[in-house]
Amino acid sequence: MNAAAGADQRIPALLLCLAALVAGCTDATSGDDATTPSTATTTTTAPDADSTSTTALAGDSPAPVVVVGRSNHRADGNRLLEGPAAITRSPPTVIDLPAPARWVVGVDGVDDTAWVTVASDGTVTAVAPDGVTRPSGSVDLGLDAPVVVLDQGDIAVVGSSSRSESTLPGAITVENEAGVRAWIGEPTNRYAHAVLGDDLEGGALVIEHGGARVTVTLTETVIEGTAPLLADLDGDGTDEVIVTESNADEGASLVAYRLDGSVLARSTAIGTGNRWRHQIAVAPTGIDGEMELIDVQTPHIGGIVQFHRLDEERLVTAIGVSPYRSHVLGSPNLDLALVVDADGDNTLEVVVPTQGLGSIAVLERIDGAVRLDAEIGLPAGLTSNIAARTTGSLVELAAATADGSLLIWRG
Ligand SMILES: [Ca+2]
Ligand SMILES: [Ca+2]
Ligand SMILES: [Ca+2]
């Protein structure tokens, strides 16, 4: 396929590419050490003493791809969109899908495709801006998170050109405009929690920037997630690399690393093993516009949407509210919540399903509380992530439900 291919040919063609990508990913996770970053790592056994190694890069970089939509919204892994959206203003447009969708991805900049949905059996449906649906082949989902990619004129669902850099199943490389790239590597099964569907978690955080690769090898914890989040928590103009670290004794804590692999700040751990935090976004949600790190603590059991602020070397919980759910136990889909101006009032809200997945809540952090601005009932239980696409300056949101509907909030 080439860039001149007709738009209506793109998705089926790229889905074939996608299958190849997935196959490649499967190979990469089967123990082929050839895909492991060729850096020396060291390990220490001292508690809390993370081991960091730095190596120079040879200068090879993967071929560029143009991404036109991704379930996690942004290349840097921060689920924060400018907006405004208007999920509360008017009822959604309801599209009938051939089957309930597990994944929905908003597509920007492609004439005949606004949304791509993937059902549990891998069946892919493309949805045009006018709501007309058409089959677009199928994919082998495995543990991978769909991402729509425009690559030499073809569109693929799932994958990342740099996915093979990690041997952790489903891992995604995040990157920012400053050329920082980061991913979770060195799979380990030493923490048997499996919230993401398998018993492998990350044993290392890999950060590339400025021609060097820093590998932080963890000994006391694992990273629970599929991607780091890049965001500037302390306002110094340089992004930090944020991950969720867990162990069997204390459960999960949020950790912000500097680009050199040192720890800028860490939250307290939950205090009990098998208790997870799902990191969602970094956004200026503080009362005076301070940056806060937003997560959902224990999303499977009474999930608490929390706002954490930086206080010296600590990430301190400013406020939280429950019960919400940003993740379904065992699913690789980590994109059920995002931060956007969801009601068009020029302030940010967290958009997150309620604990029972029967509604979508719009939560605004106000002084001393988190206010429920809206709770949008769904015709059936949510089965997908909450997707977004930008048209002009507006953000449209979409989500799929168990009755086979795709709901699109156009505002
Ligand atoms: Ca910073
Ligand atoms: Ca708002
Ligand atoms: Ca509001």
Structure, described:
The structure is a single chain. The N terminus is likely disordered. Strands 14, 15, 16, 17, 18, 19, 20, 21 and 22 form a nine-stranded mixed β-sheet that branches. The protein has a single domain, classed as Methylamine Dehydrogenase, Chain H. It has one helix and 29 strands. A hairpin with an 8-residue loop joins strand 15 and strand 16. It is 5% helix and 41% strand. With 411 residues, it is mostly beta strands. The site of one calcium ion has 6 residues, from loops.
Largest sheet at a glance? 9 strands, mixed
Taken in chain order, the helices and strands follow as: HEEEEEEEEEEEEEEEEEEEEEEEEEEEEE
Just name the CATH architecture. Answer: 7 Propeller
Structural category is mainly beta
Give Rg in angstroms: 20 Å
Distance between the termini: 36 Å
Outline the fold blueprint.
Layout lengths: L6 H22 L22 E6 L9 E5 L22 E4 L4 E6 L8 E5 L3 E5 L5 E6 L8 E5 L2 E4 L16 E2 L5 E8 L12 E9 L2 E6 L4 E2 L5 E3 L8 E8 L3 E7 L5 E5 L9 E7 L8 E6 L6 E8 L2 E8 L16 E3 L8 E5 L5 E8 L2 E9 L9 E5 L2 E7 L4 E5 L2
Parallel strand pairs: 18-22
Antiparallel strand pairs: 1-13, 2-8, 3-29, 4-5, 5-6, 6-7, 8-9, 10-11, 11-12, 12-13, 14-16, 15-16, 16-17, 17-18, 19-20, 20-21, 21-22, 23-24, 24-25, 25-26, 27-28, 28-29
Bound molecules: calcium ion (3 copies).
